[in-house]
Amino acid sequence: MDNNTNIDNNIFDNNIFKQNLNNNEGFNERIEGIIESLLFVSGDPLAPDKIADILKLDKKCVKQIIDGMKKIYEAKSRGIMIREINGCYQLCTKLEHFKYVKKLFEPRQKQVLSQAAYETLAIIAYNRPVTKAKIDEIRGVNSDSAIAKLMERNLIREAGRMDSPGKPILYETTEEFLRCFGFDSYEDLPHIDDILKIGQQE
Q1: Is 108 exposed, middle or buried (0-12, 13-18, 19+ CB in 10 A)?
Q2: Which one has a higher pLDDT value, 15 or 63?
Q3: Where are the alpha helices (DSSP H) in the chain?
Q4: For the whole model, what pTM was predicted?
Q5: Residue 124 pairs with which residues in a beta bridge?
């Protein structure tokens, strides 16, 4: 019979667990793996009573094997450790790695769109769906880079192809565009005549 099958069938028998705790390396690793999974998924400190209830083992057995796991984590160059907090256990990163971990949560520098990207976005918003050729015609320059950046930011998307020679790609703005610029719908876009008047005043 497969050894893993034996472990799965016997894991909830306290007597078999105690017999195997010091004699069966595979059994121990199986229990450790389950406890490690529970601590990882929980995130918050997990009470030994809860772990014992899930495994159908007594709390003394659970604490014994967690103490062994703690020594393994401490002895190796691992990035995580098991902390005991108010009688509960939590999987945590080691303090010596704090300066690296904190960088993951530092606010990212806000990415600002270029003038070319804003121009391209406005053309697409007011002429959707529109081809790249039409965008280039209105701007008077190539818009490949601006379109790629807007696609990357999920502000525009492909909206099919025009039924004309070459079947050029059509572009339109997305729901993310509306969300980012505070519009509930496309009806909220400023009227193009109002924009022109502001431009003339400036």
Answers
A1: exposed
A2: 63
A3: 3-10, 14-20, 25-42, 48-55, 59-75, 98-101, 115-127, 132-139, 144-152, 175-180, 192-201
A4: 0.46
A5: none
